[in-house]
Amino acid sequence: MIPKLSRYFLIILATVVLSQVMPAIYDNLFDVRINTPYVSFGAEKKVFFIYTREEGKGPAFTDSKGEKYTRNRYLDATPSENYFYHIKNGTMPDSINGVKVDARLLQRESFNQMTFPFEFSQPEYKLYPLLESAPEAELTWPKDFFRIDKRIEFIDAKTNHIDEEKSVTYTGLMKKEGFVFPATLVAGMPTVMKQWDDGWFLTDKEGSLFHLKMVKGEPYFVKISKPDNIKIKKMVCNSYSSREFYATLVSDDNRIYLLRSGDYKLLELPINDYNPDTQALQIAGSLFYKTVILNGEGSIKAYAIDRKYNKVAEYAQTWPVKADMAVGKVFTWLFPFSIEMQPASSHFVHFQVNRNHTGRWIYLNLLLLALSFLLIKRQGRKLSSNILDLIIVAATGIFGFIAVNIFANKEY
Fold it and tell me: How many CB atoms neighbour CB 301 within 10 A?
């Protein structure tokens, strides 16, 4: 009995290893390079520019109207986006779209922000530094970190002791402002490598939004007004030079908002097809427009938004993905599933089973099942003693077939 149990343990282990290794080897052997386009919006011509790199041909520039550009002509057409190039070459215009500009103004209003799907599922450390937001000189690390559960607690980083006085002071102020413990979301920028500090933004048990920071050693805590139907699931804070908005918010229904600096007004971006599970969100800003780009597998969507947060233009492009190519289709015929220990959607190691929903693998599984049956008969083994082997082959296909034949069934 023990030898049989040991054998099936080894078969299961081999099946798991093979379902991770074989698909990975296949992907590496038949890797397909897909040149995805880079899209930007030109404030001067009010069109989208598409930059691609073709093998053997170098970079190619076109606009959303189909007009082709050389590299120099593209740079000349986009001075507000490529102002460093024009300043260096002395070709920077005095005004753009009737607005007098200089390098400092363009630089201040320019930013680029990326949010990837894995950021929505990554774990948090649950310990946060509360920096002094009005320092006498540069930003410095505090001596303690805070955590939030039934109350807010400040823990001395050196002694690991709780600062009761500070914890009670902040907890009392938070309750006074209507905060219901615990916090469901804590968003901020835990670094001193930024121009200033805006503290932390919290959502409480009831979904209300609050702003927490420390100013000249004293707590600052206010409730931010927002519609009750907006449930926040992600906040991306920033320290952009323009200081236009504190953070980008993504709601439970995948709407995108900007939390405006100063008055905390929520500004909804006119985007209704964002899927954070499959698309990377890019928001690029300039003096005249913001460009929101949704990058997915096999597609890109771009939206130009003016200073009043109205959508003025949009662009979409699709291209073949690996799953639609011959190598991708062969993959679905070979493997009923695959296992990843570090999937592309995460930066953390964890066990993820990717199921093959096409059903094409069933034909190979049936073929391997029939082959296993013939091998059992040819070797003169009892069918009743090999039923479990056949079930494993039927369920796991090529992985189980290899495993049961590496660890052959010895009938005692």
Answer: 19
Cα gap 312→140, rounded to integer Å: 42
91 class by beta-carbon count within 10 Å (0-12 exposed, 13-18 middle, 19+ buried):
exposed
CA distances from 201 to 186, 204, 319 (A): 6, 10, 39
The tokens for 179 are 């905060």
373 φ, ψ (degrees, to nearest 5):
-60, -45
Q: What is the dihedral sign for C-alpha 355, 361, 367, 371?
A: negative
Single-letter amino acid, residue 378: R
Q: Which amino acid is at 217?
A: G
Rounded Cα distance, 308 and 267, in Å: 10
Sheet holding 280-285, edge to edge: 111-115, 280-285, 290-296, 299-305, 311-318
φ, ψ of residue 226 in degrees (nearest 5): -155, 155
Residue 144, strand partner residues = 156
Find the Cα–Cα–Cα–Cα dihedral 387, 389, 395, 396, rounded to 10°: 180
pTM to 2 decimal places:
0.86
d(CA 254, CA 232): 9
Residue 34 contacts residue 319 (beta carbons within 8 Å): yes
DSSP classification of residue 120: G
- Alpha-carbon distance of 260 to 257, in angstroms, equals 9
DSSP 8-state class, residue 403? H
User: What is the rounded CA–CA span in Å between residue 375 and residue 369?
Assistant: 10
Backbone angles phi, psi at 174, to 5 degrees: -65, -40
pLDDT in tens, the chain (412 residues): 777 888 889 999 999 999 999 999 999 898 888 888 999 999 999 999 999 987 767 789 999 999 999 999 999 999 988 888 888 888 888 888 888 888 888 899 999 999 999 899 888 889 999 999 999 889 999 999 999 999 999 999 999 999 999 999 999 999 999 999 999 999 999 999 999 999 999 999 999 999 999 999 999 999 999 999 999 999 999 999 999 999 999 999 999 999 999 999 999 999 999 999 999 999 999 999 999 999 999 999 999 999 999 999 999 999 988 888 899 999 999 999 999 887 776 777 778 899 999 999 999 999 999 999 999 888 888 888 888 999 999 999 999 999 999 988 776 5
